[in-house]
Specification:
Layout (H helix, E strand, L loop, with lengths): L8 E2 L6 E2 L4 E2 L12 H13 L4 E3 L8 H10 L8 E6 L1 E4 L19 E4 L3 H15 L6 E5 L10 H21 L5 E6 L2 H6 L8 E4 L11 H10 L2 E4 L7 H4 L6 E2 L2 E2 L2 H16 L4 H7 L7 E4 L6 H12 L4 H9 L12
Parallel strand pairs: 3-4, 4-5, 5-8, 8-9, 9-10, 10-11, 11-14
Antiparallel strand pairs: 1-2, 6-7, 12-13
Helix pairs in contact: 1-2, 1-10, 3-4, 9-10
Length: about 350
């Protein structure tokens, strides 16, 4: 099955429509090593030339540099031609000593620090900062970023109270005013997907890791979200690396070195893909879209060749027999919908 890159699917009950393939701009400024503006612009140009019109970013990515790079490019494109999504939940400020301030894990990012703030005022401040960094005066959606419990420790309950009683009011106000078209959330872990979306009314949800070719733990949750009218976007179809590189000494999974069990499973999936004449990356990109509740995937890219490779994988014809083999061998869940 092939997906039409220009096909648009409605998000929840809103008038926002997303294509099946977007661009995740997390690494457009670099992570360990700074990507210069020329390379970043060439990468975004490769996405645009390939037909991508949905761009996802966040203040956290490179501590503002992702938004700067993306805004610099999109300023030259017709605003009605693309969908732009960013996130709220962090408010940035200058650290006391920028020279010694740690940027981990965004070592190539801008020397700014942040505080989590899911209150009404914090959401509005984050929104205004993003408008200025991007230089673009409208967003199609704002997403509540990283409310996962692991990111907040002992502060989690208070911050979730702030989000569900205060911050959500800011997003609802912006939506009523027509300043945004949809309200969403971005989560990283399966346990988060089970619990946190229930706290507020959402139109869309980005899941980073819990639904990939390697892991379908969140399948029941995606079914439940679909029944609620919440559209799902898969933010990390390559599971942070191993589903494009394959197993090996440098393979990463969940942003960490992949362990032996994951390496073995990825190797078995790759072997099955090769038997059917398709790449592991192509299967990884297209698998999530088989679920009727998943409307889009947003793999990233830091260089033009990575974007072109993603576009090629997205356009690959995948035989239905591959999905059947993966189910029969227990490599993906039998109940997982596939692109048939």
């Amino acid at each position: 099955m092939r997906y039409a890159i220009d096909r648009r699917v409605p998000i929840g009950t809103t008038d926002l429509r997303l294509p099946p393939l977007g661009f995740g701009a997390a690494h457009i400024g670099g992570r360990a090593k700074r990507i210069d503006g020329i390379e970043a612009r060439a990468t975004l140009q490769a996405a645009w030339d390939g037909g991508i019109r949905y761009f996802d970013t966040a203040p956290y990515y490179c501590h503002g540099l992702s938004e700067h790079r993306l805004g610099d490019f999109l300023l030259d494109q017709p605003r009605d031609d693309y969908v732009l999504v960013t996130k709220v939940g962090r408010v940035f400020h200058r650290p006391k000593d920028p020279a010694s301030h740690s940027l981990t894990p965004w070592d190539a990012g801008l020397r700014f620090d942040f505080r989590f703030d899911y209150t009404y005022d914090g959401v509005m401040r984050s929104y205004e900062q993003s408008l200025m960094r991007l230089g673009i005066d409208t967003f199609d959606a704002l997403l509540i970023h990283d409310p996962d419990q692991f990111a907040h420790g002992e502060h989690w309950e208070q911050r979730m109270k702030d989000m569900s009683t205060s911050g959500i009011k800011a997003l609802e106000e912006l939506k009523r005013a027509g300043d945004i078209r949809a309200i969403g959330m971005g989560l990283n872990r399966a346990e988060s997907v089970r619990v946190i979306p229930e706290m507020v009314d959402l139109d869309m949800l980005i899941v980073a890791m819990p639904y990939t070719l390697l892991d379908q733990e969140s399948l029941p949750d995606i079914d439940r979200l679909r029944a609620r009218g919440v559209s799902v976007i898969v933010g990390a179809p390559f599971a942070s690396g191993i589903l494009v590189t394959g197993p090996g000494p440098n393979a990463t999974y969940r942003y960490q070195p992949a362990d032996a069990a994951i390496q073995q499973k990825a190797g078995a999936i790759k072997a099955a893909c090769e038997r059917h004449g398709v790449s592991l990356a192509a299967a990884a990109m297209q698998f999530p879209l088989g679920h009727p509740g998943v409307v889009s995937i947003i793999p990233g890219g830091a260089h033009p060749h990575e974007v072109r490779s993603n576009l090629e994988s997205f356009a690959t014809e995948i035989p239905v027999d591959l999905w059947h083999e993966l189910k029969e061998s227990g490599l993906i869940a039998r109940e997982a919908p596939t692109p048939e």
